[in-house]
Amino acid sequence: MITIHFDEMWEQNFLKRVSNEGPWDSWEIAKLALEAERQLAIPSFNGLQAPNHLPNLAILPHQLETAKKVVEEMNGKAILADEVGLGKTIEAGLILKEYMIRGLVKKVLILVPASLVLQWVAELNEKFYIPAIAQKKAYMWEQCDVIVSSLDTAKRNPHKALIFKQDWDFIIIDEAHKLKNRKTKNYEFVQQLKKRFCLLLTATPIQNKLEEVFNLVSLLKPGYLGNIEEFHKQFNPKNRTEEDEKKLKLLIQQVMIRNRRVDTDLDWPTRHVENITISFSNEEQNLYEKIVSAKKNEWLSQHELSALTLQREMCSSREALFLTLKKLAEKETANKTSKQFALELIEDLQNLPEHAKAKKLVELIKQINSKVIVFTEYRATQLYLQWYLQQHGISSVPFRGGFKRSKKDWMTQLFKNQAQVLIATEAGGEGINLQFCQHVINYDLPWNPMKIEQRIGRIHRIGQEKDVYIYNFTINNTIEEHILALLYEKIELFESTIGQLDEILARLELKNIESYVNDIFLNSESEGEIKIKMDNLSELINFQRRLKEEKCTDAAT
Amino acid sequence: MQQHDIQHYLERYFKANGCEIKRNEDGVIEVKLTVELDKLLMNRPFYWHYVEKTGKIAEPMTLTFLTKRKEKEQGEFIHFGSPRLHQIFQAAKKTAAFIRLYENMQGTETAYLPLVPWLMLNIKISYAADRKKDYIHSFGLQLITGQLHTNFMNRLEPLNLKPKLPDYSFPLTPLIHPKSGLNRIKKQIAALVESEGSQWAEEAKKRWNNDLQLLERFYENKEKTEAYQNEKIALKNQYEPKVNVEFINGGMLYLRSNIS
What we know:
The structure holds two protein chains of two kinds.
Chain A: E1 4-6, H1 8-20, H2 27-40, H3 50-53, H4 61-72, E2 77-80, H5 88-101, E3 108-112, H6 117-128, E4 133-134, H7 140-143, E5 146-150, H8 151-154, H9 159-165, E6 170-173, H10 185-192, E7 197-201, H11 210-220, H12 228-235, H13 242-253, E8 256-257, E9 271-278, H14 282-294, H15 298-301, H16 304-314, H17 318-330, H18 336-350, H19 356-368, E10 372-375, H20 379-391, E11 396-399, H21 405-417, E12 421-424, E13 439-442, H22 449-457, E14 468-475, H23 479-488, H24 500-507, H25 513-522, H26 527-556
Chain B: H1 3-16, E1 20-25, E2 28-32, H2 35-41, H3 45-54, E3 62-66, E4 76-77, H4 83-95, E5 98-103, E6 113-128, E7 132-142, E8 148-150, H5 152-156, E9 161-162, E10 169-171, H6 178-196, H7 199-218, H8 226-239, E11 242-255
Parallel strand pairs in B: 3-4, 5-11, 6-10
Antiparallel strand pairs in B: 1-2, 2-3, 5-9, 6-7, 6-11, 7-8
């Protein structure tokens, strides 16, 4: 028998008024109050109320379904692991709103990367009418109902102690892949929180090892995958049976939702990819050859990596190359010959005209005649391009990873309203939305395909209504052409869906693909050998992809 | 609640609070607040403190609400999820919890008429665990015979109820004291809760138990750390079934009509 909790305050107050003959309230307002309560009453244990309260929010079908599943089937505890750009924040907001409307949740703790605090606050307030506040003062932990903070702040005292004192009804942790290692302070902190309703958000639930999933799930529902010993015994990839694997998958599906682009009914804009091959001028080509032949010299072999770097930089800009050469020339430990070599190249550099790629860039931008994002690997190139575009009457703004959040927002705003071009050295990080732009130029190519994915993901996401155009610049007969032709084209990098590659590389334990590729270039005797090794790599990736696709169709049938 | 319902609701609310309605047309309502309502809704204590300290003439705010999107109108757009509407809902609840009313009847000025006392109670029953469901009930208990009605508010709809005792009427003294009246209604509520069945609670307990067993297994042969204790408390908070009864409003009614 469940005891019934009656509202005693009302009773006492009422009897007092009866004996004091009042005061009495307005009948009309009492009727209005009852009407309001009828509107707000929750008619059923199931279903979602939140959409009725959010008439201005465009909720996508997969987001609605996710929210429903978390509330009805997962008891409000889930890992939301949608691929990048499918709107995990919207899903989390929807679920939180639902519990708040139902009156089950009042006190809410939201832990996100520092750079995203203000964005979360804004989205919850504007899109969900949830009065979230960014944590600034220590008293706020106690006094504010919905508080957003960074995990780094939260886990330190005095905050930590104050947070532990509170009974939180609902906890959201964004970028939860930072909690994969259970030996970290982050993990320990989150483990000790009283987690009633809890959402962990991550786009990459598995990065390296299966154990990471175990750790994540055990934060949410300790014991759900057994304890670590049992888990290792049963699900060790080396000796688990197919049965075990199926079982594990089924288990995980009950605590984790992963929507993928291919599964959503959304009309994703088409991607058009164009590879643009450019030839060096004669002077440039000579200089490049000089670097290549120097690679075989013994004295540079201690700086092997630098030789590769020099080649890549030469493909980007004089300025990028110059900086590295200058460092080499000034390096105390460098031997005389290499210093001599560096100085000689610097001398040559000064006689070079504009870079062949920069020339092509201006031509292309003028032809596109609309907003463009240009990505480069080098800050020196970024500066050079900014200057060079200006010389040709093209307005641009820079964008770097090191910018503070407010500066990033400011640059995004400038780009949107005033400049034609954004020149970026990184993908812009989480939460920067550039959907108003349709053109991306990869001015030089990073050696980590994940970076390319992130770049494209900035504009190829929800909210992009038009087709997306991607241009890749490579220089003829250089290392750049190799990586494009031997690797990226073969694995269909530019055409593949975002998020897919991530899983494949994780499966292959090829997280550090960049150094792997480096290795191929450095330790191959001939062009032929490079080609064979790169072929192997792309075959491996494609094989994994086919395997995955088969599994997907298996699961679907 | 549709947009036109909201418009109507706002109009009634501000009228009931004695505000001047400056404009009330399709999708737009403009009101000048009273001092009381300004203090209740606008959250500007410093202004009121200043006005009262300096003895200046108070100037309550004039607000424009839109229930339809209009390009040329400036104002706050109100829909079912708006914080403003919920603030008004809360304010209505807070300021109208206790009432006393007398029924007025036409053409009875000649003889003295007795008015029968009733205890009215509007309540919300919430069944809550990790999920939740509410029911609204309206009770009326005749305080002489002990006759109990449900759905009482609807039965009151046609009556003319006023806060002042009409001429030529006199209220009968209750035989059942309001306090025991309340207890009778509470018994009725308990019966209602019982008839709802316990399946929902059993299911919640089952979910609770499942998670509890997992937790025990996780810490099997291990030190029961603080994290373990916290997790256990959190599970209780999440799943423990509870029934809460909230009294929305209620009061004493003196009626001439027979309620059946």
